[in-house]
């Protein structure tokens, strides 16, 4: 994406109970964006957009305060918690009509915000996508580091194109955001979708910093759910694995039948119920696993055909700053990207 004019940039920051770090992060991001404006790298009406994903603390109050104090800051507030991916999509969708470039970054700023000017420069040089990629996982626990490496390896073996050690710190051009929003899944796996869009891309590398305050919003349960979403969103390999396992078990059963016939012919029948029970338990467990895997796909199909909104926006203080007319007091859009303004 080669820029001939000064681009308007929006930094999208998903937030969930980020009261301990939000004001500090806002000050850092604000300083970086102002410098970019001063250097004429981005337009003077560029913005920082916080997306409050149904926080229960004072996160939204802080976002509102920041917006009142400085036009640089604005926010979008969900009616309830919809999740990290929904918050990202909401921020990108809100910024898309008004922004030439968008950068997403987590509110804790463990990703290096000082790379934002480099990302803007890479976009001006012709890249539509700039990935922020970690070159050091020393701040992670052994379990998290090992499980992440295993996840990327497994997804690569299944043919899913992911950028290893990349989270949600990235720059996207307007046309990339448009293509991403055209993907209509109710639960999009953004890290897998973006590499499939096929636009010119590059990477910038950084060392992830320890979290300064607050707690991680990704415990083991959410990480496992995230990995499962990525797996089931891009491949039917689990169903094929069940098929191959079923064929293997059928082959084993056939071999067992031949062995039983051989023992009968030679009069060396082995009596006992333990082997029978073991086989029954094994086959029963396998059937339950197979049904569960298939059920996951059927459940996702059920979710998609209902066409319920990915999120519901309760308050939007970003769009009115660019609109020529004030939005209606309450506007409901009954589609995948429902919003109340």
UniProtKB/TrEMBL annotation:
Protein name: Glycosyltransferase family 2 protein
Gene3D superfamilies: Spore Coat Polysaccharide Biosynthesis Protein SpsA, Chain A
UniProt xrefs under Pfam families: Glycos_transf_2 (PF00535)
Cellular localisation: Membrane
Species of provenance: Levilactobacillus tangyuanensis
Domain of life: Bacteria
Signal sequence, start to end: none
Membrane protein topology class: Multi-pass membrane protein
């Amino acid at each position: 994406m080669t820029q001939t004019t000064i681009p308007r940039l929006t930094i999208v920051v998903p937030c969930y109970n980020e009261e301990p770090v939000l004001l500090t992060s806002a000050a850092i991001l604000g300083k970086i964006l102002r410098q970019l404006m001063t250097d004429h790298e981005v337009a003077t009406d560029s913005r920082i957009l916080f997306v409050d994903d149904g926080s229960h603390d004072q996160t939204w109050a802080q976002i509102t305060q920041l917006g009142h104090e400085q036009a640089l800051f604005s926010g979008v507030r969900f009616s309830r918690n919809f999740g990290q991916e929904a918050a990202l999509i909401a921020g990108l969708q809100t910024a898309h009509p008004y922004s030439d470039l968008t950068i997403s970054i987590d509110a804790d700023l463990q990703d290096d915000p000082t790379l934002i000017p480099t990302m803007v420069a890479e976009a001006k040089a012709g890249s539509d996508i700039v990935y922020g990629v970690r070159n050091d996982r020393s701040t992670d626990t052994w379990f998290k580091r090992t499980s992440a490496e295993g996840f990327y390896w497994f997804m690569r073996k299944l043919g899913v194109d992911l950028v290893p050690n990349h989270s949600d710190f990235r720059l996207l051009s307007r046309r990339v955001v448009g293509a991403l929003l055209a993907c209509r899944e109710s639960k999009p796996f953004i890290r897998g979708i973006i590499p499939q869009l096929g636009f010119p891309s590059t990477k910038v590398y950084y060392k992830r910093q320890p979290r300064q305050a607050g707690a991680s919003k990704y415990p083991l349960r959410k990480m496992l759910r995230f990995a499962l979403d990525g797996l089931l969103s891009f491949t039917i390999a689990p169903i094929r694995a069940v098929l191959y396992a079923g064929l293997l078990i059928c082959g084993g059963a056939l071999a067992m039948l031949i062995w039983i016939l051989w023992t009968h012919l030679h009069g060396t029948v082995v009596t006992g119920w333990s082997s029978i029970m073991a086989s029954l338990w094994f086959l029963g467990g396998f059937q339950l696993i197979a049904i569960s895997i298939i059920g996951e796909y059927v459940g996702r199909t059920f979710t998609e055909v209902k066409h319920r909104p990915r999120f519901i926006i309760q308050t939007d203080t970003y769009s009115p700053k660019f609109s020529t007319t004030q939005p209606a007091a309450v506007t409901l859009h009954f589609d995948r990207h429902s919003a109340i303004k």
